Amino acid sequence: MELADGVLAGDQRAIARAISLVENEPTRAPSLIRQLFARTGQASVIGITGAPGVGKSTLVDRLVVECRDRGKTVGVLAVDPSSPFTGGSILGDRIRMQSHSGDEGVYVRSMATHGHLGGLSNATSDAVLILDASGCDLVLIETVGVGQGEVDIARTADVSIVVTIPDAGDEVQAMKAGIMEIGDVFVVNKADRSGAERAVFEIEGMLALREFKEDAWSPPVLKTQATTGEGVSDLLETVNRFSEESSESQERRRERVHFRLTELLQYTFIQRLEKQEHSRILVRDAVERVAKGEVDPYTAAADIMERVT
Prior knowledge:
The protein is of the alpha/beta class and 309 residues long. The chain has helices spanning 2-8, 12-24, 29-36, 56-69, 123-133, 151-154, 169-176, 196-208, 232-245, 248-275, 277-291, 297-308; strands spanning 44-50, 74-80, 106-112, 138-142, 159-164, 185-188, 221-223. The protein has a seven-stranded parallel β-sheet with strand order 3-2-4-1-5-6-7, with helices on both faces.
C-alpha cells in the first residue's frame, strides 16, 4: 500500500518505482492497479505519432511548456525502440526534455516497446493509469515510427495526433496505407520549410476521400514550428476542442477499455497455457503435428481451445 500511497500523493520517486514495477514485474502489476484505479479517469490522454525526424520530441516538449503555462500537470511517456539484445529502450528519458527536470508538475519517462509492432508495450496502459492516478491533468504518449501497426495508439489515447513534415513523400504515402484512419489531428511540423502548404493540401485531399458520419469530427490539418513554439498553442486548443465537442471522445474511452480488457484476456489465457503442464503438452504436441504437416494450424488451435476451456 505504501507504493500506491506515494503514487496518489504525486511523489515522482513512487511514480518511477510503480512504472518500473508494471514494466518488469507483471505479476505484481494487478495488485497495484487495483489500489489506484478508483482515482483514475481524470487525465486526458494524447497520443503523438509520426516517422523519425519529424520533430515529435520537440513538439512534445513545446506542448509540455504550453500546458504548464496554463497550470496543467503533465506526464510524458516516450515509447522508444527496444534493444534487440537487452530488451531495454535505446533512447532514454535522461536525454529528453532536460529543461523540465526540476519541475514537479512534469513527469517524463521513456518506455521500451519490447517488440510490440504497434510501438506500445503491454505496460504502457498501466503506466497511463499510474500517471492518471498521480494527478496528471494530461498524459502525452510519444510513439515510435509510423506504419500500419501504429493503430495501437488510437486504442490507447483519447486523441491521436499524426505528425509529418513538408516534402515527406514516403511518410505521406505511408499515411495512405492506414495511418489516415487513426489521426484526429494532423500536424505539418517544421512549417518554415518550403512545401508546407503543399503538404497541408495533400493531407486535406486524402482526408476528403474519407467518409464521415453527419456531425462527426473532421480532422484538421495544422502547421507548427516546434523549435520556436509557433502553432503549438493552436494545436493544444484543437485537442481541447476535440475532447469537448466531439461525440467520439467518450466512445474513444470505451474503445480504450475494450482494447485493454481484450489484451488482458489474451495475456491471461497465454499465461494459463504456459503454466499448466497439461496445456504445455497440448501445445508441444500441436507444434509437432503442424510441423510434420499432419494438421493445419487453425485446426490445431481449435483443438487446443476445446481441450483447455
